[in-house]
Amino acid sequence: MKIEWKTDKEMLDIIETRKPRGLFVCLNDCGFKGYTAVDNSTGEAWTEDFEDLKSAEVWLRIDISR
């Protein structure tokens, strides 16, 4: 599944509505400096913050049945 870039607002919408499904990342400019990743491949919107993009991508690619 391809990782898609989203804005902060789009990420909040995904977390709240659980739609669309997929893997998402955004640059977080508010408060926490880094990246926010959302795994919504199952509709559960698992969310984590990371200091670097590589770590966010690795987390999104690992299927550990969150």
Structure description:
It is a single chain. This protein has one domain. It is built from two helices and four strands, in the order βαβββα. It has helices at residues 8-17, 53-61, and strands at 3-5, 23-28, 34-39, 46-50. The longest helix has 10 residues, at 8-17. It starts with a strand and ends in a 5-residue tail after the last helix.
The total count of strands amounts to 4
Separation of the first and last Cα atoms: 16 Å
Largest sheet: 4 strands, mixed
Radius of gyration: 11 Å
Biggest sheet strand order reads 1-2-3-4
How many distinct domains? 1
Stretches with pLDDT under 50, minimum 5 residues: none
Per DSSP, what share of the residues sits in E-state strands of 2 or more residues? 25-35%
Order of helices and strands: EHEEEH
Q: Rough shape?
A: globular
Count of DSSP H/I helices: 2
- pLDDT average, as an integer? 91
Proportion of residues in helical segments: 25-40%
Structural class: alpha+beta
Could you name the key traits of this structure?
2 helices; 66 residues; 4 strands; alpha+beta
Concise synopsis of the structure shown:
This protein has two helices and four strands; from the N terminus they run βαβββα. The chain is of the alpha+beta class.
Write the layout of secondary structure elements.
Elements: E1 3-5, H1 8-17, E2 23-28, E3 34-39, E4 46-50, H2 53-61
